[in-house]
Amino acid sequence: MVAKKTAAKKPVKTTRKKVSKKTSSKKAAQMQSFRVYKDAQPFTQARLSRQTAYWSVLLIFIIITQLWILKIQMDIAEVTLLIAN
Questions:
Q1: Beta-carbon neighbour count of residue 32 at 10 Å?
Q2: Tens-digit pLDDT profile for residues 12-70
Q3: b/e per residue 44-81 (b: at least 16 CB within 10 A)
C-alpha cells in the first residue's frame, strides 16, 4: 500500500465580535398621574345596547332553569314523603 501525503491544512481564522453588555438604552418610564377623562355617556343615563339584550336573555334563561330545578326538587321531596309514610 502506498500512503498518500496530504498537505497540512492551515487553521481557519474566525473573527469574534466583542459582545458587551449594554445597559438599557431606554430610560425607565416616568410615573405619570392618572388622567381623568370625561365619559362620553353620563353614568346615570341608561341606554339599550346589544349587550343589554344578551344579558337579558341570559338572565331569563337562568331564572327559568332555576325554577325548573326547584320544581324537580319539590317533586322529589313529595315522592320521598309519600314513600316514607
A1: 6
A2: 676 666 666 655 556 666 767 788 777 777 778 888 889 999 999 999 999 999 999 99
A3: eeeeeeeeeeeeeeeeeeeeeeeeeeeeeeeeeeeeee
Report the amino acid identity of residue 1: M
What is the identity of the amino acid at 20? S
Q: Which sign does the torsion angle of CA 67, 69, 74, 79 carry? A: positive
Looking at residue 27, its amino acid is K
The pTM assigned to this predicted structure is: 0.47
Gap between the Cα atoms of 7 and 25, Å rounded: 51
Backbone phi, psi, residue 25, to 5°: -75, -25
> In this structure, what C-alpha cell is assigned to residue 70?
326547584
Cα diameter, the chain:
112
